[in-house]
Amino acid sequence: MAEGVCIADPPRGQEILAALREIQGTAVSIPEGEIALAQRELALKEGIYIEPTSAVAMAALRKLVAQGVIRPGEAVVVPLTGSGLKASALEGWGPWVSSCHADRGDFRHAR
């Protein structure tokens, strides 16, 4: 589902683990169902349609809050960088997302 982070042997994996240890950070694994839930909730509740790889960050935030790693009131930044439209056609997602055809002429008079 989130192929952007599904890497069995990342090229800089040891560096990433070393950085996590140095800052006493943590990492969590996220099942596909939680990724899909985070993606749908952001789309339906916030109007932000992101790709599954970006939804991993939101699902991880939810898990870290539930585990008490991130406490209420703490400031957290979660970058959401990839549009869900680039993944929805490939994955068969999108009964809740509609699309239309448009060309440049359609936008000439838009204000």
What would you say this structure looks like, in words?
This protein has 111 residues and is mainly alpha-helical. It has a single domain (3-93), classed as Rossmann fold. Helix content is 42%, strand content 0%. The protein contains 4 helices and no strands. The longest helix has 15 residues, at 32-46. The chain is globular. The mean pLDDT is 81.
Q: What is the rounded Rg?
A: 17 Å
Give the number of DSSP strands.
0
Structural class: mainly alpha
> How many separate helices?
4
In whole angstroms, the N-to-C terminal distance is 37 Å
Mean pLDDT: 81
Unreliable runs: none
- By CATH reckoning, the class would read Alpha Beta
Strand content: under 5%
Task: Give the ordered list of helices and strands.
Answer: HHHH
Number of domains: 1
Query: What can be said about the biggest beta sheet?
Result: none
CATH topology: Rossmann fold
Write down the overall geometry. globular
State the CATH architecture. 3-Layer(aba) Sandwich
Share of helix, binned: 40-55%
Quick description:
The chain has 111 residues and is an all-alpha fold. The chain is 42% helix and 0% strand.
